[in-house]
Amino acid sequence: MSESVPGPAPEVFAPHQAPVSPPQASEEVEFVQLLTPEGERVEHPDYSFDLDDEAIKGFYRDMVLVRRIDAEATALQRQGELGLWASLLGQEAAQIGSGRALNKKDMVFPTYREHGVAFCQGVNPLNLLGLFRGVDQGAWDPKDNNFHLYTIVIGAQTLHATGYAMGQQRDHAVGDPDNGEATIAYFGDGASSQGDVNEAFIWASVFNAPVVFFCQNNQWAISEPIDRQTRIPLYQRAAGFGFPGVRVDGNDVLATYAVTQQALKRAREGSGPTLIEAYTYRMGAHTTSDDPTKYRLNEDLEHWKLKDPIERVHAYLTRLVGLDQDFFDEVDAEADKVAAELRAGCLALPDPVLTDFFQNVYVDETPQLAEQREQFAAYAASFEGEG
Amino acid sequence: MTKITLGKAINAGLRASMEKDPKVLVMGEDIGKLGGVFRVTEGLQKDFGEDRVIDTPLAESGIIGTAVGLALRGYRPVCEIQFDGFVFPAYDQIINQVAKMHYRSMGKIRMPVVIRIPYGGGIGAVEHHSESPETLFAHVPGLKVISCGDPVDAYWMIQQAIESDDPVVFFEPKRRYHEKAELDESVPPALPLHKAKVVREGTDATLLCYGPMVKTCLQAAEAAVEDGRNLEVVDLRTIAPFDLATIFASVRKTRRAVVVHEAPYSFGPGSEIAARVTEECFYHLEAPVLRVTGYDTPYPPSRMEDDYLPDLDRVLDGVDRVMGY
Question: pTM of the full predicted structure?
Answer without folding.
Answer: 0.95
